[in-house]
Amino acid sequence: MLEVTASFGADRSDLKLEVLSGAAAAEQRAAILEHLRAFNQSRTGPAGWEPLCVGVFGDDAALEGGLYGTILYDWLVIELLFVPERHRGSGLGSRLVAEAEEQARAGGCVGAWVDTFSFQARGFYEKLGYCLVGAIPDHPIGGERYFLSKRWVDAANR
């Protein structure tokens, strides 16, 4: 752990900075997130955070894949999408995204967004109508990270 003591801000208060990693960092994440959510809510109102999962189950009822996302500020954020290898190319991935989008639309969302890497599924999302809105080169080094969105409701027509 690295500790730094310094003065910050107009009140010149002494604060201690600590660089944390591993379990200690994970424990602090929740507290930082609580502060950030309170600040955001004071500016925008409730975010409406709601998890959304569409699971793929095999014959033995075991979870084999699926889509996990969050509804946040009237948008679906697709966080995870995994299609079992033997089902890739079968339309299952498209069905998972369509079901999540349907649930999000029914909940009043105006669109969806996702991030993916160059070795993953940019073309897949573009075939579903998602448009590239940003990219980070060399993330990971030699690749890119893409951000795509799809809007199905114009905010002016809500």
Task: Write out key terms for the chains shown.
single chain; globular; 6-stranded mixed β-sheet; alpha+beta; 158 residues; Aminopeptidase; 8 strands; two-stranded antiparallel ribbon
Structure description:
By secondary structure, the chain is α+β, with helices and mostly antiparallel strands. It has two domains: 2-44, no CATH class; 50-157, Aminopeptidase (3-Layer(aba) Sandwich). It contains three helices and eight strands, in the order E-E-H-E-E-E-H-E-H-E-E. A six-stranded mixed β-sheet has the order 3-4-5-6-8-7. A two-stranded antiparallel sheet has the order 1-2. Strand 7 and strand 8 form a beta hairpin.
In short:
With 158 residues, the chain is an alpha+beta fold. The protein has helices spanning 22-44, 92-106, 122-127; strands at 2-8, 13-19, 50-57, 63-72, 75-82, 111-117, 131-137, 144-151.
Domains (count):
2
Strand ordering within the main sheet: 3-4-5-6-8-7
The tally of helices reads: 3
Q: Encode the helix/strand succession as letters.
A: EEHEEEHEHEE
Distance between the termini: 50 Å
**The biggest beta sheet, please?**
6 strands, mixed
Outline type: globular
CATH class of the largest domain: Alpha Beta
CATH-assigned fold name of the largest domain = Aminopeptidase
CATH superfamily of the largest domain: Gcn5-related N-acetyltransferase (GNAT)
Low-pLDDT residue spans:
none
How many individual β-strands? 8
Percent of residues in helical segments? 25-40%
Strand content range? 35-45%
